[in-house]
């Protein structure tokens, strides 16, 4: 039924225990889709630059999971900035706020921020419908706010659990440490990348993978000996470990190749790390080629690794 027919929605049904943010998001979207139907209900993520749709109801607006939109063009950004109410059935207001042509036909919207316990923005509960309707959405604003506060609480519990698991994973070092550099070896890298893939699908936190390949290793080994080659690799490993922030995963992937996985890291922080690496390598007289690829909902982390690897080889070829 159109949302204009809905009034105060009924009590929340009995639900199974919601042990993670994914389950809670799906339950909230499903519940609202049934009892306060709009053309679209969704849970979205703000990653610092874009709005990412994490959970969406079946909808005629062709919005899909993983779709991204530039944050400044969204109605949600106007709500977060305090320039618009969190709920409106006023078609003229919605039209005035819309900076994205794809929302031109929208007559009503919902945008309720989902916050971490520290008050920082995770994303929004977002709803939209072509019909302008009556005050049904405004009548249920208190419940919509409550649902978002509950989602924020579950989110932070999930984050704390993920951090505990991450710390436990990085502690499994005995069989996963490279003996020459003391960094994670490829086996450990593969395991952690697989775990981070699951977490990224849950939270869509920004991040990146950096691949570093040392230049001229064969020449060093041939002309100066393998001891000199080992010292060169160790020097590079120390630089990587020193520049990487505590949450980074630094690994020696092969003879002269290293990887840095940067979960939950904003693009500008990745830029800063690259600047640190380039300066430190130059000062230590270590020549290398570097590739970077940012996390994307359209790629697995394994594919992101491949993209970073390809960028590294492009960098290497550009030197010749």
TrEMBL record:
Gene3D superfamilies: 3.30.70.270
InterPro entries: Diguanylate_Cyclase, GAF, GGDEF_dom, Nucleotide_cyclase, Rev_trsase/Diguanyl_cyclase
Short name of one Pfam family: GGDEF
GO molecular function: diguanylate cyclase activity
Domain GGDEF: 205-320
PROSITE patterns: GGDEF
Organism in which the protein naturally occurs: Rhodococcus qingshengii JCM 15477
Name of protein: Sensor domain-containing diguanylate cyclase
NCBIfam families, per database record: GGDEF
């Amino acid at each position: 039924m159109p949302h204009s027919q809905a009034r105060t929605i009924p009590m929340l049904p009995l639900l199974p225990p919601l042990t993670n943010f994914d389950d809670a998001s799906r339950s909230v979207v499903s519940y609202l889709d049934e009892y306060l139907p709009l053309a679209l209900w969704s849970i979205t993520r703000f990653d610092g630059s874009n709005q990412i749709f994490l959970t969406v109801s079946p909808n005629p607006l062709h919005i899909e999971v993983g779709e991204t939109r530039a944050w400044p063009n969204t109605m949600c950004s106007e709500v977060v900035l305090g320039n618009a109410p969190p709920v409106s059935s006023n078609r003229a207001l919605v039209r005035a706020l819309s900076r994205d042509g794809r929302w031109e036909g929208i007559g009503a919207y919902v945008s309720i921020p989902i916050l971490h316990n520290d008050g920082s923005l995770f994303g929004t509960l977002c709803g939209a419908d072509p019909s302008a309707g009556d005050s049904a959405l405004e009548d249920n604003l208190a419940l919509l706010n409550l649902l978002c506060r509950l989602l924020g609480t579950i989110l932070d519990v999930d984050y704390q659990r993920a951090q505990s698991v991450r710390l436990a994973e990085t502690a499994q070092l005995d069989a996963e440490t490279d003996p020459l550099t003391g960094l994670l070896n490829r086996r450990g890298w593969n395991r952690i990348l697989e775990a981070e893939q699951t977490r990224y699908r849950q939270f869509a936190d920004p991040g990146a993978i950096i691949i570093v390949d040392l230049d001229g290793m064969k020449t060093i080994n041939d002309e100066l000996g393998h001891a000199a080659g080992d010292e060169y690799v160790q020097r590079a490993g120390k630089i990587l470990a020193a520049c990487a922030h505590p949450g980074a995963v630094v690994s020696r992937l092969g003879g002269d190749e290293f990887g840095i996985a940067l979960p939950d890291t904003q693009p500008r922080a990745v830029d800063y790390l690259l600047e640190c690496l380039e300066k430190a390598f130059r000062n230590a007289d270590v020549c290398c080629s570097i590739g970077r690829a940012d996390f994307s909902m359209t790629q697995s982390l394994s594919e992101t690794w491949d993209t970073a690897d390809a960028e590294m080889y492009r960098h290497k070829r550009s030197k010749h």
